[in-house]
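Issue 218. Parser rejects a valid record. Input:
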Amino acid sequence: MTKRILFQFDCDPHASVFDAVVAIDSDVDHLVPYAGVQATSVEPLVHGAMFTRGGDDLKNTAIFIGGSDVAVAETLLRCVTDTFFGPVRVSVMMDANGCNTTAAAAVVAAARHIDLSSARAVVLGGTGPVGQRVARLLASDGASVTLTSRARSRAQHACDHIAAQAGEAIGAKLTAAELDSPDDVHAILADANIVISCGAAGVQLATESDLCSAKNLVVAIDLNAVPPSGLGGISVTDKAKPFAEGSAAVGYGAIGVGGLKMKTHRAAIRSLFESNDVILNADEIFALAKRVDA
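Output the parser choked on:
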């Protein structure tokens, strides 16, 4: 039987141990990590993966792109796919810093509690890689999304970037907002059904009082695992837990979402070996997370 080989392309000086463990737990026979991968070094690595096997055996070779810099990883993904020609290709997945699996798991978790097509969502700290993906995935399933930053110009730039990547239909679902004071928080959360906090580690973006004052809130998700919590009143381990006495809304912490994230990550790795032409980025991993959660 042909062995499953996964090449790990990491832009950092040391390849991620986390990604390596998940790959091994996903039934990969051989993991070959490369650290410090740059755009200029991609082509010969991909050629080595493409040209050593043929026919049905080619599906047993795949590439995982990781690292802490999502923008660099996106460039590496483009370089990898640009190297392919015709049927000569291998499957590839991009999940730098867990951006795609985390965003997908958060949005699927929110969808357990409310129909996204009629939901009003707020993404706090939405300008980073995870926040932009959360906003994009929410909008792709029909939610009206307010994306916040401390500066409205940064929030608008993020919305414009998402629209340029995902199309005008999704862009039309996005609204940029400034979040720079307690009054801003109350105004932005007033009509929200979903709140997902994607801000920097250790920064609280909304208090428990803020969330309790949001009378239409159904679910709040905090993706920050470093104290203090990004959303007051939500513990890192909470999973669909009412976050305040007398409230019908539920909360998820980073670890509460983490179980689905890990299932999605492992399922995505396994799916790379079903054929030699799988490309997994945000949208594809979101679709897979839905199936994992079904």
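Fixed in the parser; the record now loads. The mean pLDDT is 95.
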